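REQUEST FORM: STRUCTURE PREDICTION
Request ID: SP-0412
Submitted by: Lab K.M.
Chain count: 1
Length (residues): 235
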Amino acid sequence: SVNPETPLLPASNMKLVVATVALDVLKPDFVFSTSILGQVNGNSIDGDAYLVGGGDPVLVTGNYPATEPYPTFNFTRVENLFDALAAKGITRVTGSIIGDESRYDTERFTPSLGLGIKGTEVGPLGALMINDGVVSGNPIKPDNPALGAATEFTNTLQNNGIAVSATPKIGTAPKDLPVIAKIDSLPLSDIVAEMLTNSDNNTAELLVKELGFATSGVGSRTAGLEVIKAKLVEW
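STATUS: Completed
RESULT:
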């Protein structure tokens, strides 16, 4: 061994550990789901519609990958959610699109990240992210990715013929609110392929949170790391 007592930063090699644990614990056919909840009345959603994040790290609008230095692939297309609403005859939301990120905690960045990485290479993180938290036409990411996602989805609806009466917001969907439409990601095996090919930091961080949520109901970095450590010990 060379310098066996010298601590090193493993950096993106850690994604190999995250990938193998995720495939073992969540299983290769696991999918992330993103939903719209609300009350439908004829061709309208009465009041607010809740965009509920399921932790999908590759949820994008169709035009986003072409803007990236390392384009996201194996993505989930947000426009599919619009298509699902349009297929039900929805033409209007009388309230707001409300972004619900309650699946995970609100720790936006791992505390040890350097300033040159925060917001550019990773984060701000949350269970509801569209386009890695980017809002089209805005060079600065919102601090809250769920608000960014609600904004981006509102724009997607309005640009394609579904009117939204009020401004985007954040909140938690009532438990008794029905699901109007839902879209699923590709299987986890495909998402892991994207993560390892592009060294996708957001995907790695959200997978850690999902490991925590799936195992203990706590979608946090620390809960996910406990799952990873336990699995390594088991192996």
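NOTES: The mean pLDDT is 96.
Reviewed by: T.R.
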